[in-house]
Specification:
It contains four helices and four strands; from the N terminus they run E-E-E-H-E-H-H-H. By secondary structure, it is an alpha+beta fold. It has one domain. It has a four-stranded mixed β-sheet with strand order 1-2-3-4. Helix 2 crosses helix 3. The longest helix is centred in the C-terminal third of the chain and has 20 residues. The protein is globular and about 55 Å long. The termini are far apart.
Length: about 120
């Protein structure tokens, strides 16, 4: 899907450490919808786990880039916009979908798999 506009509510120049931070990004696609995603660095996850004294991250997934540069972020956004923007839409909705809907989709998937193996 075609990317129309990418906006940064926080200027990239305001990021103190481009290897250890995260940033919101607004992505407008040709469907007229503006998707909000968070772009993070791997080091940002490690530092979060150290601060929280945990060995894992459990939360809405982010788009991961090595460094928070305009080029890295935009290359990732364009990649996520491929294939009808499946992954961009997925990340935009992560954490927003009702658990009942997720359970229904999982049951339907399992039934389809069972039908394939039982045939």
């Amino acid at each position: 899907m075609k990317v129309i506009k990418i906006e940064y509510p926080t200027q990239l120049s305001e990021i103190c450490d481009i290897e250890d931070d995260n940033i919101d990004v607004f992505v407008e696609l040709e469907d007229g919808i503006t998707y909000t995603v968070v772009v993070s660095t791997p080091k940002n996850y490690y530092d979060y786990m150290a601060r929280e004294s945990v060995d894992f991250y459990c939360g809405v997934p982010d788009i991961i880039v090595k460094k928070l540069t305009k080029d890295n972020i935009e290359r990732a956004i364009y990649k996520y916009a491929e294939d009808s923007a499946y992954w961009l839409k997925y990340y935009h909705l992560a954490g927003e979908i009702n658990i009942d809907i997720l359970n229904k989709v999982i049951k339907e998937k399992e039934l389809k798999s069972k039908d394939i193996f039982d045939a």
